[in-house]
Design a protein that fits this description.
alpha+beta; 4-stranded antiparallel beta sheet; 7 helices
């Protein structure tokens, strides 16, 4: 997660994809291969990146000359007797006893559809019982060796995440954990290696919080070992100077100046910005319209999560030539003004 690669899900959403579309490995690889910039230089920062997992799965596949699903079945799931676990790389494949996911609405529950056909960052089908076998392998090795496990458990300098796991403390106890969420599926696996204790929570309801439930279980089972750190706050008598933020009059912005058609070569997609009822509105052929709200000169915030901040670019004649858009896991993706 220190590679600087842009995240695949954010890129797909920006390109007009819905998360319930059929999204294959080929779709992801083609989109990633068109990216011209990184979020940051490799090693400079930390930013969670699902793209890295997808690329690593592809590396495994090409080196082994097997699909990632086949490789993991032979080298991980079969040796650990995880008989109800697989990587789902075919969205049309029928899986016996598969649980579908849901989200609640005013009318009750509705299906939350998942059609992914890509693996590495997602698409692990499993059970609590099989995940328990995976967890026990860390303390009684059948797959891998101590060198690999130690490396997996060692955090990088920039953040408390190791190789696919978050390493930290929970109420004074060493904890190694990771959660997941796709469609209405929710999962959380947390290990306490010093206590030889694991909690696994899976759910198929989008509103469920598996991490909170897992820690409630931890609080019960490890209550005699929990040591809650007590912090004594202390503050010196200091006066900190801060620069005054200049006020910005949003009404002074000429929204029509930002209207136009903008194209991204990296996403192969086009957005039209136009003024509607005194709002600058972004329109896309596959997405619902959303507003762009001025925050300061030439900078807007988008009401869609994947259009967090838009910074317009001007030429030497003060004419707008394009913009760069950023969100949590994608930075400065360029759109050129074409009309």
């Amino acid at each position: 997660h220190t590679s600087g690669l842009r995240d695949q899900w954010n890129l797909l959403s920006m390109a007009g994809w819905r998360m319930d579309d059929v999204i294959t490995k080929e779709h992801v690889l083609k989109l990633v291969s068109k990216q011209k910039e990184l979020n940051f230089n490799p090693g400079d920062e930390y930013a969670y990146c699902n793209t890295g997992f997808t690329l690593l799965a592809e590396v495994v596949s090409r080196i082994s000359d097997m699909s990632f699903a086949e490789f993991t079945e032979v080298n991980i799931f079969e040796p650990l007797k995880m008989s109800n676990t697989l990587f789902y790389d075919d969205h049309e494949k029928v899986v016996k006893n598969r649980t579908y996911s849901y989200n609640s609405s005013s009318d009750g529950y509705k299906k939350s559809v998942l059609n992914y056909a890509n693996v590495g960052a997602t698409s692990l089908f499993t059970t609590v019982e099989d995940l328990a076998l995976w967890s026990m392998n860390f303390s009684n090795l059948t797959v891998g060796d101590s060198a690999i496990v130690n490396k997996m458990n060692t955090p990088v300098v920039l953040k408390g995440i190791a190789l696919g796991q978050f390493v930290g403390k929970y109420k004074g106890l060493k904890e190694i954990q990771h959660g997941g969420a796709d469609a209405g599926y929710r999962s959380y696996l947390t290990r306490f290696p010093d206590e030889n204790f694991t909690v696994i929570v899976l759910s198929n309801s989008a509103e469920f919080n598996p991490g909170r439930m897992a820690h409630k279980v931890v609080d019960i089972y490890l209550k005699d070992r929990i040591k809650i750190d007590r912090i004594k706050p202390h503050q010196e008598d200091q006066i900190m100077e801060a620069p005054r933020t200049e006020s910005f009059d949003k009404a002074s912005v000429n929204l029509s100046e930002f209207s136009g058609e903008y194209y991204s070569e990296e996403l192969s997609t086009t957005y039209n910005f136009m003024v509607v009822n005194d709002n600058l509105v972004a329109k896309h052929s596959r997405l619902s319209d959303f507003n762009l709200n001025p925050m300061k000169k030439d900078i807007f915030n988008g009401e869609a999560w994947f259009f967090g901040q838009i910074e317009f670019i001007r030429d030497s004649n003060d004419m707008i030539t394009g913009y760069k858009v950023s969100n949590g896991r994608v930075r400065n993706l360029y759109f050129k003004k074409v009309k």
